[in-house]
């Protein structure tokens, strides 16, 4: 039996629930699994889904950071990322971008001891169909939100770039 915990996000009824997946699970007539979560919010809690103007060191990339990151990579002469609306297999395009977490010691120094705020960085996966042969590259772009540089991620545990398979 598998147990999955989930959080329903709503401005009027946040609640935790547990869904059990196994042979004893009752399904609705149309074959879907159903769960019931309380519709009342006795504590009047509110989950603020707005993006912060100055995100913390562990926060996901904001839409503003993603837009500025994409613009920087489209204008960088070494990367030449293609806008998603016109990207093709033989062009350079962004596959994904995510926060690259700072070292734990920097985060703790900031949170616990009032130290300097760790620099926010992004890890970007690029499909480079414009190169011969085509490759996949990972970049570290910093600082966010106003990106000034994107460098190939340098790890000893994996190759970068790697060959692109169609």
UniProtKB/TrEMBL annotation:
Signal peptide from the UniProt entry: 1-17
GO molecular function, one term: copper ion binding
UniProt domain Copper amine oxidase N2-terminal: residue ranges: 85-147
GO biological process: amine metabolic process
InterPro entries: Cu_amine_oxidase_N-reg, Cu_amine_oxidase_N2
Keywords from the UniProt entry: Signal
UniProt-listed Gene3D superfamilies: 3.10.450.40
Name this protein carries in UniProt: Copper amine oxidase N2-terminal domain-containing protein
